[in-house]
């Protein structure tokens, strides 16, 4: 039986595979002659980094970082805490942050500032998914897989309350499931506030 929380499939497994192969090729060309230090942001980007790094023809190393952003189950506040830091220094390395999804961009803004202060030789971002209509800060994102509509997505690493990460595709959560998770966004103010 299908899980009642899972709505329409937004990106099929074979589309993910094909796009990730393209990204791997593009990144390998851009980094030719260099070694990439991948920084995978736990936990959502785990499936993506595992598939992406197998498509790289340049040498790479991978390290992991876990951050938590305070907020409701389905939207972030931009206040970020490091739960697990990198194991190794990135000074002088060509760092590529691997993210699952950029929503408001607040988490990534924090990460970019934090990692830039550690003096990498270069710092770029590869995010599998992006929700352009939700962006609150303008950030340099060099590689993206797919744009998504303003829907809460699960699968291929993305979770709701730690579930659904193992789905081989990306699906929208049903509206009922978003509401049940407390993800309803506050209504805009009736009059503009200054
Ligand atoms: P941001 O700080 O608003 O850009 O949110 C970044 C993080 O929130 C992502 O790395 C995800 O972990 C999580 N997130 C944002 N949108 C979704 C979604 O649609 N599904 C699952 N997780 C999401
Ligand atoms: Mg993430």
Give the helices and strands, then pairings.
Elements: E1 6-11, H1 13-30, E2 36-42, H2 46-53, E3 60-71, E4 76-84, E5 94-102, H3 106-116, E6 122-130, E7 143-147, E8 153-154, E9 170-173, H4 175-180
Parallel strand pairs: 2-3, 2-5, 5-6, 6-7
Antiparallel strand pairs: 1-9, 3-4, 8-9
The structure holds inosinic acid (IMP) and magnesium ion (MG).
Report on this model:
This protein has 194 residues and is of the alpha/beta class. It has one domain: Rossmann fold. It has 4 helices and 9 strands, in the order E-H-E-H-E-E-E-H-E-E-E-E-H. The protein has helices at 13-30, 46-53, 106-116, 175-180, and strands spanning 6-11, 36-42, 60-71, 76-84, 94-102, 122-130, 143-147, 153-154, 170-173. The strands form 2 sheets. It has a 6-stranded mixed β-sheet with strand order 4-3-2-5-6-7, with helices on both faces. It has a 3-stranded antiparallel β-sheet with strand order 1-9-8. Helix 1 packs across helix 2. The longest helix is centred in the N-terminal third of the chain and has 18 residues, at 13-30. The model is unreliable at 186-194 (pLDDT under 50). Residues 41, 44-45, 99-100 line the site of magnesium ion (MG). Magnesium ion (MG) binds at residues 41, 44-45, 99-100.
């Amino acid at each position: 039986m299908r899980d009642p929380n899972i709505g329409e499939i937004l990106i099929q497994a074979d589309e993910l595979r094909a796009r990730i192969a393209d990204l791997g090729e593009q990144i390998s060309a851009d980094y030719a002659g260099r070694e990439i230090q991948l920084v995978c942001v736990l936990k959502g980007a785990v499936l993506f980094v595992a598939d992406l790094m197998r498509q790289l023809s340049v040498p790479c190393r991978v390290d992991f970082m876990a951050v938590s952003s305070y907020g409701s189950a389905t939207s972030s506040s931009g206040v970020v805490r490091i739960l697990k830091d990198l194991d190794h220094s990135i000074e002088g390395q060509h760092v590529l942050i691997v993210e699952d999804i950029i929503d408001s961009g607040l988490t990534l803004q924090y990460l970019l500032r934090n990692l830039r202060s550690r003096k990498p030789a270069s710092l770029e971002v590869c995010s599998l998914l992006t929700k352009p209509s939700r962006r609150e800060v303008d950030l340099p994102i060099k590689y993206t897989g797919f744009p998504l509509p303003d829907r809460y997505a699960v699968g291929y690493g993305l979770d709701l309350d730690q579930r659904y990460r193992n789905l081989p595709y990306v699906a929208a959560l049903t509206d009922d499931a978003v509401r049940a998770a407390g993800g309803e966004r506050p209504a805009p103010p009736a009059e503009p506030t200054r």
